[in-house]
Amino acid sequence: MPELPEMENYRQRLGQHIINVPITGVTVNREKSINLETEAFTQALVGARVVFVERRAKHILFHLHDGRRLLLHLMLGGLLFYGTEEERPDRNTQVEITFGDHILYFMGLRLGYLHLLSVKEAEAAMGKLGPEPLDRRMTLERFTGMLKGRRGALKSLLVNQQFIAGIGNCYADEIAFEARLLPSALVQNLTQDSIARLYEAIRKVLTDATEIGGYMEMPFMNGDTVTGTYNDRCMVYDREGEPCLRGGGTVVKIELSGRKVFYCPDCQHEQ
C-alpha cells in the first residue's frame, strides 16, 4: 500500500504538471471507484481546473477551482501514471482524467477510490487522522507526550492512522530497524532514550524515502527516474532470509496482529 513517501512523491509530481490545466475528459471504467454516477461525476469534472494538490496521510486531495475536492486513496495496489495515449501503460485503468493531450491514469483501484466531495465532506473524511509525522510542530516533546498512556506493540502503534498519519507496513518496519527496536517492543516499556531514537528514526526514514521517490513499482511518467528508487534501499522490509545490512544477523519475518513483520533479531531489541 502506498504510504506517506509514495503519496508525497505523487503530490510533488502532480503539482508540476496539472495545476490550472483544464480537465477536458473523464473516463470511468469502474463505477465502484467513484462516489457518484458516472455521468454526474464526468459532468462535474469536465471544464474544472486543479488549483492545488495536497497530501494528507496516505491520501491526495485535488483542490478544484470551484472549491470542491477530489479525494484519492490508492489503498492496496493503487498506482498513478501521467502521459499521452501513446504512452498508456499496459494495465487496466479504473478512472482516467484527461488534461489536454495528457491523461492521468488511475490503476489498481480494487479497494481504492476517487471521490468528489465538498470542502465539508473532505474535512469530515480526514477528521479522525492523527498528526503528520514530518510536520514542523511534531517535536520530540510532543511525540513523547503522545506516547503517554499508550500500550501494545510498537508496529501496531506506528500503523495506527489515528495516532500518527501516513505510516504503513513497510515504513513501520524500516523505522523500527533504524531505531534498533523490535516491532513487537511494548510501547509502555520504552525508555526516554528509546523514544528519542524512535522519533529520529521516523523523521529520517520518511524524509529519506520521500527524497528518493518511495517504493512504487512503476514511474509516474515516461522519463521519471525518481519514483520507486527506495525499492532497493529497504533494510528489512520484504527481505526475509537475507543478511542484515547492519550486522551479521539474518532478517526474519513473523506475523504480529495479523500483519507481516520483518526485522533483525540480532540488532533490534526491546529497548
TrEMBL record:
Residue intervals of the Formamidopyrimidine-DNA glycosylase catalytic domain: 2-112
EC number(s) from the headed UniProt entry: 3.2.2.23, 4.2.99.18
Reactions catalysed, as given in the entry: 2'-deoxyribonucleotide-(2'-deoxyribose 5'-phosphate)-2'-deoxyribonucleotide-DNA = a 3'-end 2'-deoxyribonucleotide-(2,3-dehydro-2,3-deoxyribose 5'-phosphate)-DNA + a 5'-end 5'-phospho-2'-deoxyribonucleoside-DNA + H(+); Hydrolysis of DNA containing ring-opened 7-methylguanine residues, releasing 2,6-diamino-4-hydroxy-5-(N-methyl)formamidopyrimidine
MF GO annotations: 8-oxo-7,8-dihydroguanine DNA N-glycosylase activity; class I DNA-(apurinic or apyrimidinic site) endonuclease activity; damaged DNA binding; double-stranded DNA binding; zinc ion binding
Gene Ontology biological-process annotations: base-excision repair
Limits of the FPG-type domain: 235-269
Organism annotation: Paenibacillus agri
Entry-linked InterPro entries: FPG_cat, FPG_N, H2TH_FPG, Ribosomal_uS13-like_H2TH, Znf_DNA_glyclase/AP_lyase, Znf_FPG/IleRS
Protein name: Formamidopyrimidine-DNA glycosylase
Keywords: DNA damage, DNA repair, DNA-binding, Glycosidase, Hydrolase, Lyase, Metal-binding, Multifunctional enzyme, Zinc, Zinc-finger
Family: Belongs to the FPG family.
